[in-house]
Amino acid sequence: MSILKIPTQPDTQAADSARAAATRAAIAETAERLFRTMGYQKTAVADIARELSMSPANVYRFFSSKAAINEAICARILGVYADVLWAIARGPQSPEDRLRGLFHTAYEQTKSLFFQEKRLHDMVDAAMAEHWGVIEGFIQQCETAIRHVLMDGQRAGRFATMPPDETARLIHATMIGFSHPTLVSQCADDDLAALANGMAEFVLRALRP
Prior knowledge:
Tetracycline Repressor, domain 2; Arc Repressor Mutant, subunit A; mainly alpha; about 210 residues
């Protein structure tokens, strides 16, 4: 004899949580698409709600404000950026080549954002200028990826022994000229790729044991 299983409260809570996560993801995906076409400043919560056939009040159930949506989209964009850096940092190449790769990729990612996704570039630029909370996490990701390569090089005897946290922050600072959105937009006619490559070699010389 089969016994009908009555859903328990935890099952219901899990289903509700899954639906909420799916709705939140749909809002974020829709907002990002609108940001790419209209710009984040011109996109209103009403626009996002209309695309999803829901009310603005329902959007606010999942995001407390338009600023919260902005931060969520910025986090998605920078998360992809950080994943690319980490793929290099954990790669099979020598520590020297991985560090070169981080410099080159930092420039290429910012250039791609500026020339191919200008409206998203403007949002990231504003996030940095206005010190959105998501930026601090992204900076930590960048510096931790650099630190990972640095410590690999130190263990292998390829880099001099230096305080890894402080040294990673200093190395990251040398990337600002070709990876900060504002500077890249202001220096679009300069050979920033050459600057990135040259700065990588300069840093590598400073790291030699």
